[in-house]
Specification:
Layout (H helix, E strand, L loop, with lengths): L5 E4 L6 E2 H15 L7 H10 L1 H9 L8 H15 L9 H8 L6 E2 L3 H11 L2 E5 L3 H11 L5 E4 H4 L6 H10 L7 E5 L2 H9 L3 E5 L21 E3 L2 H7 L5
Length: about 240
């Protein structure tokens, strides 16, 4: 197997642990609004469950492209109303800060070192649905170093739309078959492969708190498979 000439990374779930971070932040916010009775982990799961349906409206032409920060805030408001919270009575600044919890996600233990090793081999960029401002703050907080922030906002589309993968590779000056998506999600990798990209699967069994991934039925034999970014770097024979 030839080495990729550049890597594009899914971020949520692959590089950072969204569930633990969102549950922790939501527990604090729920207590502040007097709803500490709600389970913070279930709240995090329900927030994330609104992710694909919200993006589908954009992908299917039901609304113009908006950045993920906008969708995260809308999803949060919808979830709070589902639980009977009078969102209009809340301080708008609190709601915005809560929705920006996605800017403050912690990396998996191997992510910083693994990303640095892979970056020594080839350029590494984000290939995420996260918008640029979100990715910048998240990466600075987590100590993640990228060669560029690309993906959805650059393409004005959300994965798994084909143009997101192809525009990211093109921005790096790399042909699709030399550009590798690194992701913990089989559905993302399947769409990337269909667009002609190389694929690297990173197993993150705790992304959903130990529960089975919703896209497990889309598993294929990916070009590379590893249980961490450092293990992927080792497969590619990148020195420590």
């Amino acid at each position: 197997m030839r080495r990729p000439k550049a890597f594009g990374f899914d971020v949520f779930g692959t590089v950072v642990d969204w569930r633990t971070s969102i549950a922790r932040e939501s527990a604090g916010f729920l207590a502040r609004i007097g709803r500490g009775d709600l389970d913070a982990e279930h709240f995090a799961d329900a927030w994330r469950a609104r992710y694909q349906p919200a993006m589908a409206k954009v992908r299917e032409g039901g609304r113009d492209f908006v950045i993920l920060d906008t969708l995260h805030c809308e999803m949060l408001v919808d979830l709070l109303r589902h639980h009977g919270v009078d969102v209009d009575a809340l301080d708008p600044a609190l709601v915005t800060d809560w929705s920006h919890a996605w800017h403050r996600l912690a990396p998996w233990p191997d992510s910083v070192a693994g990303l640095a090793r892979l970056r020594a081999l080839a350029p590494v960029v984000t290939l995420s649905n996260g918008n640029v401002a979100l990715m910048i703050e998240l990466s600075r907080r987590a100590g993640l170093e990228w060669d560029a922030i690309l993906g959805a906002e650059h393409a004005r589309a959300f994965k798994p739309s084909r143009e997101v993968y192809l525009s990211t590779a093109a921005a790096c000056g790399v042909e699709p078959n030399d550009f590798c998506l690194v992701a913990a999600h089989h559905s993302d990798l399947a769409a990337a492969r269909k667009a002609g990209l190389m694929t690297a699967y990173i197993d993150r069994p705790m992304e959903y708190g130990g529960a089975s991934a919703p896209d497990r039925d889309q598993r294929q034999d990916w070009d590379y498979e590893a249980d961490s970014l450092t293990a992927l770097a080792a497969q590619l024979e990148v020195p420590k």
